[in-house]
Design a protein that fits this description.
Blueprint lengths: L1 H22 L1 E7 L6 H13 L4 E7 L7 H5 L10 E4 L8 H12 L3 E5 L10 H7 L14 E4 L5 E4 L7 E2 L3 E7 L13 E7 L2 E2 L8 E9 L4 E11 L2 E6 L5 H4 L2 H16 L20
Parallel strand pairs: 1-2, 1-3, 3-4, 4-13
Antiparallel strand pairs: 5-6, 7-10, 8-9, 8-11, 11-12, 12-13
C-alpha cells in the first residue's frame, strides 16, 4: 500500500511539474556577440524573467565573431517553438535563413523583444529596422528614417533632419516618465521613476512605423525626451523595445526588471498579469537587487 501511495505521489508531482512548465511563457534568448558584456547581462535577463515564475527561458548563443561558415550553418534557432524571442545580440549579420525565419515568425504572429544594444544591430537590414522601429549606430542616418522623441510640451515629434542615429552621454541614473498610463505594460506605474545607472540612448532613428511610445527619459545631451519603453506592430506580431539595460547593474534595477517582465508577457500574450512590486522605484529613490 505504501509503495502504491508513493507511486501515485510521484506521478502527481511529475504531472504538476510538467503542467507548470507547460503553462509558462517560453522565451528564446539570443546572445553570442555584442559590443556590451552579454556574458554578464544574459544571466540577469534570465533571472529577471524566471524568478517571476511566469517564464521558462532557453538561451541560444550564436557563433563567435569571425567564425567559419560551417559554424554559422549549425546555428539556426527554431523561433516557432517559443512564445517570444528576446535579443541580447549586436554583432555580425545572421545567415540569410535565420533572417528569413525571424521575419516570417514575427510577421505570422510571433513576438520579439529588443533590449538596449540589440537596437544597434543590423543597420542595413530593412525588415529588422521595421521590426524594432528605431535604432542607433550601425550606419544609421537620415536615410534610415526620422528621429522620434517628445518635446517639452508633451508632443510626439518625427524629425527627418540629417544626422547620425544613436548617441548617449555619460552613464547615470535618470528619470523615466510614463506617457501612456492605459497600456498594460505601464499601467499602475508612478508618473516618474528613477532608473539605476545606465546609458540613456538618444537620437535613435528608423522607419518608426506603428510605434507606440509608452515612456520617455529626458536626455541632457540631446535636450529631448527620448523613447525608453516602446511597442511596435509588425505584420501579425508584437514587438517590445527598451533601450535601457547597458550593463548587469543597469538590469538589476527593479524598474527595468518589471518593464522587461511586462513587456515580454505583453509581446507573447497581448496582456500583462503581473502586479507592480512593492519595491518599485519612486521619483526620488532607485530600487535595485
Amino acid at each position: 500500500m505504501m509503495n502504491y501511495l508513493k507511486t501515485v505521489y510521484l506521478l502527481l508531482l511529475t504531472l504538476l511539474f510538467y503542467s507548470s512548465a507547460y503553462s509558462k511563457i517560453k522565451v528564446l534568448l539570443l546572445d553570442g556577440q555584442n559590443n556590451h558584456n552579454w556574458k554578464a547581462t544574459t544571466p540577469v535577463l534570465v533571472d529577471a524573467l524566471e524568478s517571476s515564475g511566469n517564464f521558462l527561458v532557453s538561451v541560444s548563443t550564436s557563433p563567435a565573431k569571425n567564425s567559419t561558415p560551417l559554424d554559422w550553418e549549425e546555428w539556426n534557432p527554431n523561433f516557432s517553438s517559443y512564445d517570444v524571442t528576446l535579443s541580447n545580440y549586436n554583432g555580425e549579420m545572421w545567415p540569410k535563413e535565420v533572417q528569413e525565419n525571424l521575419i516570417n515568425y514575427v510577421q505570422e504572429g510571433g513576438s520579439f523583444v529588443v533590449v538596449h544594444a540589440a537596437n544597434n544591430a543590423f543597420g542595413q537590414w530593412k525588415e529588422y529596422n521595421q521590426m524594432i522601429g528605431l535604432g542607433g549606430w550601425g550606419g544609421r542616418n537620415e536615410k534610415s528614417g526620422p528621429y522620434l522623441f517628445f518635446n517639452d510640451f508633451g508632443k510626439l515629434v518625427r524629425d527627418p533632419r540629417p544626422g547620425r542615429g544613436g548617441s548617449h552621454g555619460p552613464q547615470s541614473e535618470f528619470i523615466v516618465q510614463v506617457r501612456d498610463f492605459k497600456h498594460s505594460i505601464t499601467k499602475g506605474m508612478p508618473k516618474k521613476w528613477l532608473h539605476s545607472k545606465d546609458e540613456l540612448y538618444d537620437s535613435l532613428r528608423g522607419p518608426a512605423e506603428k510605434v507606440k511610445i509608452l515612456a520617455t527619459a529626458y536626455s541632457e545631451k540631446s535636450k529631448k525626451h527620448e523613447p525608453m519603453i516602446m511597442t511596435i506592430s509588425y505584420g501579425k506580431g508584437r514587438v517590445f523595445h527598451t533601450p535601457m539595460g547597458h550593463a548587469d547593474y543597469s538590469m538589476k534595477c527593479i524598474g527595468f526588471q518589471e518593464v522587461l517582465r511586462r513587456g515580454t508577457e505583453w509581446a507573447a500574450t497581448g496582456q500583462v498579469t503581473s502586479e507592480l512590486p512593492f519595491d518599485f522605484p519612486t521619483e526620488k529613490k532607485v530600487s535595485s537587487q
